Amino acid sequence: MSNQPEEFNWDAVEEKGFGKQYSKEDRDRMAEMYENTLNEINEKEVVTGRVVGMNNKDVILNIGFKSDGLVPVSEFRDLDLKVGDEVEVYIEDQEDAQGQLILSRRKARIVKAWENIQRGYEEDLVIEGVVKRRTKGGLIVDIYGVEAFLPGSQIDVKPIRDFDVYVGKKMEIKVIKINYANDNVVVSHKVLIEKDLEKQKAEILNNLEKGQVLEGTIKNMTNFGVFIDLGGVDGLLHITDISWGRISHPEEVLQLDQKVNVVVLDFDDDKRRISLGMKQLTPHPWDSLPEEIQVGSKVKGRIVNVADYGAFLEIVPGVEGLIHVSEMSWSQHLRNPQDFINVGDELEAVILTLDREERKMSLGIKQLTEDPWTKSDILTKYAVGTRHTGVVRNLTNFGLFLELEEGIDGLVHVSDLSWTKKVKHPSEFTKVGDNLDVVVLELDVENRRLALGHKQLEENPWDTFETIFEVGSVHRGTILTRNDKGATIELPYGIEGFAPSKHLQKEEGSQAEVGEALDFRVLEFSKDDKRILLSHTNTYGEAAKRSEKKKDKPSKPSSAKTEKASNESATSTLGDLAALSQLREQMEQNDSDSE
């Protein structure tokens, strides 16, 4: 037997072709067996593939399809990939123009991420993310490769002032909102904390008692107080309960995130409001006020408040005294303490009253200086007849008050302002703030009263006017004002007279008007009442003749020189008091010569 192999007939194969030995039924059966080894895949879905090859550009994946797919190596940078590993990929196209299966791991991760986000939202799952960066109003968190927005208000139950501390850190969150139109996801970390805090709140509120001392953290500050986190429940520490002393804002003594001990002052179970105090943990300053502080003691302090009625001086934190406006100066014309005292000023004062039980104290500043009415030289300095200059402080219907020095005021009656003018109100003569020269008319130290006069600085001109404006004499005058009763006439030397309406008729029958200068005859002269009654009508006609005839009758002896001076003055024009004084001196000299 020969062991040589039987020769193969290649001609027979070439004649029949490759596979021609199989019948159609055999080929169909084998094709069906091959198709059953392949997976049925659909485009736009995620499948699992196995790495079967790699090069510098692509990764070859077998997903059980009739052909393998290619994925760029760049999509696997986050993995240490090797042959045989399984990864999830997204089927973009079963067959492109080159007949190649197109896959994407990046899109597979996006699709899978959104599926996980949707499941987390629907099932209220806790998801772990990484804070990538801060943005306006919050943080950007990476969850499953998708960027989600974490609002600042959803980071924690307490306000967050520095978002940067969370960047780069892992954080557990929950999906609270999905906007499919914009592919936006909103997450929250706060909801995880709130659930834990609910149990703590309930426990704190159940065990809460007035007077209980707790430790808390300052959560927020306002101008009226601070909110303190007591471990899940907030309490309000009002600004008035922070310190025994006055403060204008909590930030003067406290800081955000500071841990403090507080006492429970009151709480409301229904509204969950808790009032806290901090100053109550220390003794009241009034209880430790030194015994040597008594009425009459001098104390130093700082002005903490200024009101219309006075100012409050803080001697030590929590101990204040009121300086009433009347105790700030010996002057009686203070209007507002804020004009010369400001918050923050350091002052010295004298204790006027002290009540330790009621915790009240009144203080005075003016007591640091001597009362001007008790000075030893008051009787000589302001003796009757002495002259002074003061400042007009107040005007009234009956006169004005003049301050000669701090605490020394005097009244100038309206009748003592001018010899010649009828002043109805002091505002016609002067104004507040003006300087005015006066003479002392009366001094009453016991009652602290000082009567002053301004017109008394000059000699009374009415003594001289009596010899000039004799009854029956005629003088040129100008009508200043007029009413139904008559008119006020300005005569020479600035003196004024009055003419009744029936004495204002002119010779042609018309009535004299304001501004006209006419001759007027003196009908009546009263030095005591400072009153001169005039008539224009009596300067002409029968009335003038009767007046002249009456005038010719001697009423009293007078020298020729005096009569001459009197007649000259009857036609004199408006002069001043200096000329009047000179005229009187001339008249007195003439009377002396006649004797």
Automatic annotation (TrEMBL):
It comes from the Bacteria. One of its GO terms (biological process) is translation. Binds mRNA; thus facilitating recognition of the initiation point. It is needed to translate mRNA with a short Shine-Dalgarno (SD) purine-rich sequence. Residues 44-106, 124-190, 211-279, 296-366, 385-455, 472-537 form the S1 motif domain. Gene3D superfamilies: Nucleic acid-binding proteins. GO terms for cellular component: cytosolic small ribosomal subunit. It comes from Catalinimonas alkaloidigena. SUPFAM superfamilies: Nucleic acid-binding proteins. Belongs to the bacterial ribosomal protein bS1 family. One of its GO terms (molecular function) is mRNA binding. It holds the Pfam family S1. The keyword Lyase does not apply. The keyword Cell membrane does not apply. Residues 543-566 have a biased composition (Basic and acidic residues). Keywords: Repeat, Ribonucleoprotein, Ribosomal protein, RNA-binding. NCBIfam families: PRK06299.1-3. This is 30S ribosomal protein S1. Coiled coil: none annotated.
